[in-house]
Amino acid sequence: MMSMELDKILDEMESLILEASHLPFSEKIIIEEGDLSLIMDRLREAVPLEVKKAHDLLDEQMNIIKNSRAEADRIVEQAKAEAERIVELAKSEAERMVRNEEVVKMAEEKAQDILNDTKQYDNDMRAAADAYAEKMHRESLDYATDVFAYLEDSLKKTLEVVRESGAPLRTTKERSDEQEEK
User: How far is residue 128's CA from residue 140's CA, in Å, rounded to a whole number?
Assistant: First the structure.
C-alpha cells in the first residue's frame, strides 16, 4: 500500500515538473518552492515507512525461510528416524526369516541324516541277515553233507555186514542148488 503512496508522490512530482514554467532559452524550469517542499516532506515520510515495511517484509521472509528450514530439518530427521526404524524392522524380519530358513534347513538335514541312517541300518541289517542266511545255508549244507556221508558210510558198513552175513547163506544156498541139480 505504501508503494502506492510513493507512486502517487512521484506522480505529483512529475506533474509539478511538467507544469512548471520554462526559463527562456534554457532547459531550466521554475518550480514553486512551497509545492516542492510539501512533496519532498511527504516523500521523506513515505520512504522510511516503505524501507521499514520492506525491511519488515524481508525479516518476515527470513523468519518464514528459517522456520521452513527448521520444519524441513525436522521432517528430514523424522524421515531418517522412520527410515532407520523401517530398516531395523526389515533387518529383524530378514534375520528372523534367515533363522527360520536355517531351522528348516537344519530340520531337513536332520531328517536326511535320519533317513540316511535308517537306510544304512536297513542295508547293514539286510547284509547281516544275508550273511547269516548264507552262513546258515552253508552250515546246513555242510551238516547235510556230513549226515549223508555218515549215512552213506553207515549204509556201506551195514551193506558189508549184510553181504558178509549173507555170504554164508548164499554159499549154503548155492550148494543146496547144486545138490539138487545133481
Answer: 18
